[in-house]
Predict the structure of RiboL-PSP-HEPN domain-containing protein.
Amino acid sequence: MNQSVVESNPFYAEISALANAHNRGDYFKVIMLAPQLLAQIGSAIAEVSEGIVDDIVGDCFSDDDKEVYRLMGKFERELSDKAYIASILVGYYESEFWSKNHSKREFIKYFTKLEDLVDLRNLFAHEYYQKPLSDRRVKNCSKSAMDLLFLFANHEYLEPSV
C-alpha cells in the first residue's frame, strides 16, 4: 500500500503532520487525532461519491428523496466516527477495491485496526491515568492509524482532476 500522499491531496498537510508525529514517537497525538481526520477524509470521499451517483441516477429521485438521503448521511457521520469509518471500509469491500481472493481478509485487517484505534483513543480520553498501556500497543496502534489514513487519502476520488 502507498505510504505517502501527493501534495495536491486536500489532506496533505494534516496527514503529513500526523506522519511526522508518528515518526517522532508522538503516538498519543496520532491516536487522538486520526479518527477525526479519517471521518473528514471519508466525508470528502462520500461527497464526490454522492455527486457521481446523483449524476448517474439523480433523475430517479425527487428533490424530497435527495434531501432525506442527504440528512441521513449527515446523521450517520455524526452518530459515531467508528461506525462511519467502518461504513467507508464496507464501501471499499463492496467496490472490490481489494482483489476478490483477499477482499474479506483486507476488510477484516483494516476493521481490526479501526477497532483498536478507536478503543485506544477512547481509553486515552477517559481512563488515561487509570490503566497502564504497553508501549508496543500504543506504537502499533499509531502505525495502524497511519495505515488507515494512507488507505483513505489515496482514494481515487481525492485525486486531482486532469
User: Anything to note?
Assistant: The two ends are 23 Å apart (CA to CA). The helical segments are 12-24, 27-57, 63-79, 81-94, 103-127, 135-153. The CA atoms of residues 21 and 30 lie 7 Å apart.
